[in-house]
Design brief:
Elements: H1 17-24, E1 49-59, H2 70-88, E2 91-101, H3 106-123, E3 126-134, E4 138-148, E5 163-167, H4 172-180, H5 188-199, H6 205-210, E6 215-221, H7 225-236, E7 239-243, H8 257-266, E8 272-277, H9 282-292, E9 296-303, E10 307-311, E11 317-318
Parallel strand pairs: 2-3, 7-10
Antiparallel strand pairs: 1-4, 2-4, 5-8, 5-9, 6-8, 7-9, 10-11
Helix pairs in contact: 2-3, 4-5
């Protein structure tokens, strides 16, 4: 990945690739030694810090509808990457952006860049480079952040007896997608809430920073609670027991129970954090929730053994059909 943008085949573009970059994606990068405009960016990580790096790709027709609002798409393209850094307890610093575009629609580019940079400004992220080419609409961000040496949150630290916590409300984005697909008809207040969760997720960066030294493990919920918690269990070689009734979910009426359970447990696109912490840290976690004005809910506990047991309100073991989103399933 270089800081100099290029278009492999610029034929069919209404403006040159260099004009495109200069007009919509070139800005000062105060946190970088050298940003956009050369063969590579130059970055300096602060003394005592480690570099956290993550890449996510959004593909038209797979991750978003082809006619998605470009401003909201710009927001989400960066937000899903910020969520990964949040799960590591890292401070976001720099990003690169690679775009495959079917054409250089200037109104689309303006709105997309406005949405992207509005969120970048909120979190102090410098865009330091990337790439452009002509092709089916595809958006890819590599994000970089800093975390003090030895303090990164990982998936591998869960211990038997830990509480399992989640932030926010789960299943809203999946319900919003079901609404757009015509599978359900939500009440107006729920519809607006769920569509906002789908299109403009809020990365929990402040929560990730606050959990340093408190959480034993963490992950962002992108593919669904069961799938992502499963990654913690696999990396930590542990098991878990979850109380379904404890999972924070939006109240809906007249929605099929099976679809509702699927959205809450496996729907994905939540971009909330799931983390584990010693039961002795409950007071500190509750204090973080109050300070950030962010609901943090204890939904179960880590156990010895393997796998996750999900229990209904009456204590019965539930057996959901799906564990989460899989691009190749």
């Amino acid at each position: 990945m270089t800081s100099a943008y290029s278009v492999a085949d610029s034929s069919g573009f209404g403006l040159s690739e260099f004009d495109l970059i200069q007009r919509y994606f070139t800005r000062p990068a105060p946190n970088a030694i050298l940003g956009v405009g050369d063969d590579a960016a130059l970055l300096r990580v602060a003394e005592g810090m480690e570099l956290a790096v993550s890449t996510d790709m959004l593909v038209s027709g797979t991750h978003f509808f082809p006619d998605a609002d470009p401003f909201l798409l710009g927001h989400k393209t960066l937000a899903v990457n910020l969520s990964d850094l949040a799960a590591m307890g890292a401070v976001p610093r720099w990003a690169t952006l690679a775009l495959a575009l079917p054409g250089a629609d200037e109104n689309w580019l303006r709105r997309f860049s406005e949405g992207f940079f509005a969120l970048a400004d909120e979190y102090g992220v410098d865009l330091v480079g990337g790439d452009t080419t002509r092709g089916p609409l595809n958006l890819s961000v590599t994000i970089m952040g800093e975390v003090p040496q030895g303090q990164a949150l990982r998936r591998s630290g869960a211990e038997a007896g830990d509480d399992i916590w989640v932030s926010g409300t789960l299943g809203r984005a999946a319900l919003g997608l079901a609404q757009l697909q015509g599978r359900i008809a939500l009440p107006e207040d729920a519809r607006l809430s769920c569509l906002a969760a789908l299109h403009q997720p809020r990365p929990r960066v402040a929560l990730g920073l606050a959990l340093r030294g408190i959480a034993n493990s963490a992950i962002d919920i992108s593919d669904g609670l069961l799938a992502d918690l499963g990654h913690i269990l696999e990396c930590s070689q542990a098991g878990a027991e979850i109380q379904f009734a404890a999972i924070p979910a939006i109240e809906t009426h007249g929605i099929d129970d099976a679809l509702f359970r699927h959205c809450v447990l496996s729907g994905g696109d939540d971009y909330e954090l799931c983390f584990t912490a010693s039961a002795t840290k409950r007071g500190r976690v509750e204090a973080i929730a109050a300070e950030l004005q962010l609901p943090l809910t204890r939904i179960g506990s880590i156990s010895a053994g393997q796998g996750c047991t999900l229990r209904a309100a009456d204590g019965r073991a539930m057996k959901p059909k799906e564990s989460g989103y899989d691009h190749f399933a």
